[in-house]
Amino acid sequence: MEINVADAPALPEPLSPEQISLGKELLATMIRIRTLEEGIERHFLAGEIPGFAHLSIGQEAVAAGTCAALNREDYIASTHRGHGHTLAKGTPMRTMVAELFARETGVCRGKGGSMHIADFSVGMLGANGVVAGGFGLVTGAALSAQLLGNGRVAVCFFGDGATNRGPFHENLNLSAVWNLPAVFVLENNHYASTTSTAETMKIEDVAIRAAGYGMPSEIVDGFDALEVYRAVQSAVARARSGGGPTFVECKTYRIRGHYIGDPERYRSKDEVEARKSDDPIVRLQARLGEALSSAQFEAIWAAAREEFAEAVAFAKASPPAPASDAFVGLFVGDRDKSTVYGAFAERESERF
Amino acid sequence: MAHSITFSEATLEAMREEMRRDPTVFLMGEDIAKQGGIFGQFKGLPQEFGFERVRDTPISEAALVGAGVGAALTGTRPVVDMHFADFITCSMDELVNQAAKLRYMFGEQCSVPMTLRAPDGITKSAAAQHSQSLEAWFVHTPGLEVVVPANARDAKGLLKSAIRSDNPTLYFEHKTLFTQKGEVPDDDDFTIPLGKAETVREGRDAAIITYGITVGRALEAADKLAREENIEVRVVNLRTLWPLDYDAIADAVAATHRVLVAHEAVRVGGLGGEIAAFIGEHCFDDLDAPVLRLGAAHVPVPFSPGLQDAMFPKAPAIANAVLDLVRNRR
Hints:
Distance between the termini of chain A: 84 Å
Number of helices of chain B: 12
Low-confidence stretches of chain B: none
Strand order of the largest sheet of chain B: 3-2-4-5-7-6-12
Largest sheet of chain B: 7 strands, mixed
Distance between the termini of chain B: 45 Å
CATH topology of the largest domain in chain B: Rossmann fold
Shape of chain A: globular
Oligomer: heterodimer
Low-confidence stretches of chain A: none
Number of strands of chain B: 14
Radius of gyration of chain B: 20 Å
Shape of chain B: globular
Order of helices and strands of chain A: HHEHHHEHEEEHHEHEHHHH
Strand order of the largest sheet of chain A: 1-2-3-7-6
Structural class of chain B: alpha/beta
CATH superfamily of the largest domain in chain B: Thiamin diphosphate (ThDP)-binding fold, Pyr/PP domains
């Protein structure tokens, strides 16, 4: 039998030692995110986590690849599906879990929860309960970086749904015309809540919209963490050197429902099953091949599980956010009773 | 010592002094840099501070306020000009869900030292979409400071305090006031503290609690009542609507026992309701008459001058309401 060489799938280039080292780092980040989110799912279903929670299982390569291309001082703004971004940017798992458990030791003192988690100590400007809420924050953070000349870059994570909102248009245009050091990373998981992109836009590649703003763009395989890293790293380098913003579209897929408990009537089980082979963890493990032994792979998982167990123990040992905290923390100075705001907080808290 | 300048010039002085004092202060808005603003309130600033710090922007209110919040979170003090207050509606998410909430929601990790300048109010048949006074919406929203200057002195002192404030501050400036002259202190460091009202006229027979453009109208009414009816009216200029100076309100009730609350904003759901309710709850024993409220009728602002002038309170309506109060006609 003759083999037609042109028809055979191209073998990937062998990884360089640097790529192997980076790949291991990205794999560890993705496994930490997966472990965190599978744990959140269990504790949410057990009734230990109040509110809403949205999981990014299947999309971890975007968070891991993007944040690996950033410095600690660089900024990110995230979405309602932001656990992965937050962890990848450097927020400790224990203060994240404590926040989700509504504890005083949570990174937002138990006032934000899953949808509004932020960590300014690592440049994480917040998950956002409003779809497209991050665009303005990133444009502004990039503007301040430009004005202050501090060399920082701001990255906006957003989904396909956000690209149909007005702030997407206004902020991409403004960032482009002012040449701001920003990177817009689209996680195209093909669903806005329950509605597929096929029903909400007439284009296949959202990245073509960037051309309308005079902004360069790139489309990458969002299941391939190394590819996401390569594209974002190049966009970050352009932004940092004064070349302005870039649009990076990561084609990915959300394996879980829109929220924990979503009955998922809008898509078939077969569709979801078919995408499981794209799992970014499986893909990167395969790509690393013999460079990563199965013992090493298991050790990464074990470390992540241990980290999560420690985080849950920390959260459970922490007191809940105190009720008196409801009345303060709105204005600068309102914890100080001698200020005008302190007096207001005092009056309000006496009413109940 | 003091000098006499217009309200517009007073805001210009405030911005110039604050920009000299703090290199992280910058301005952005539509038509502010090359045109100098609709009321000349930005004239000359780019020549001194450059077009990087005084920026003309696209017509993108959501991006302006959103970027203002982002810049404020990350080490600068933006002053965003809203062109007309009516257009705040195009940036409500950025203001209400982002600016007002981030500090609280993120457990005090951040602050939003942004000032939003918003020219508002009824003037010269600007009609329904360029005449509104929307301050009550933002007093109702926890997390925003709301400032309303009544004259040139207020304009300067309050704008400087707004820019220096570490909280998001809305600065509502009435379009009619921009050309009005007033005495402003010469001191470069002159500020007016947020959250403190000013008694601008003493009087024992009744009190008018008011703010912004209506302060001048209340003073005109008070002078007429003193001249023609021998009635002495205290006038309280609130200056800041949040934090609201409830103590000054209670003091005015205790001193006069009769209170009128007046504003140009629509009466229904307006700030007058909050003030009247506060007086009812906390100062009932001091009252000799029910608290009266004056505000615009519950209709959009019409174009025709005759219709426009019929639907919001000016000095004669304010004087009549005080007479009703003093003579127990209500």
